[in-house]
Amino acid sequence: MYTAFNVPGARTRFPWVSITGHDRGGWINAAGTLQGFLMTSSGHFINVDYPGPQMTQIDGINERGDLCGIYSPSSNGPFKAFIALAQ
After folding, report:
1. The whole model's pTM is what?
2. Domain range holding 64?
3. Which one of 3, 13, 52, 64 is separated from 39 by 20 to 30 angstroms, measured CA to CA?
4. In the predicted model, what is the mean pLDDT of residues 57-67?
5. Is position 73 within any domain?
């Protein structure tokens, strides 16, 4: 099954679907900044940005809701990994 969705304000998006049924990835806003997102299985859009950096991308989510991804203070790197634990 294929379902299209729009990320509000996105010029470009990079989605992946997880085993939990959540879409996650990154999207480029009008200012050219990469931001992370999570689209829940119920269709709720959540913007996910690592505090401070210019770029965030969500690469994975597990059954508990823990996220992993990359962030960078600039579009040229360096890129660092992060894990955000569900509460």
Report:
1. 0.71
2. 12-84
3. 52
4. 86
5. yes
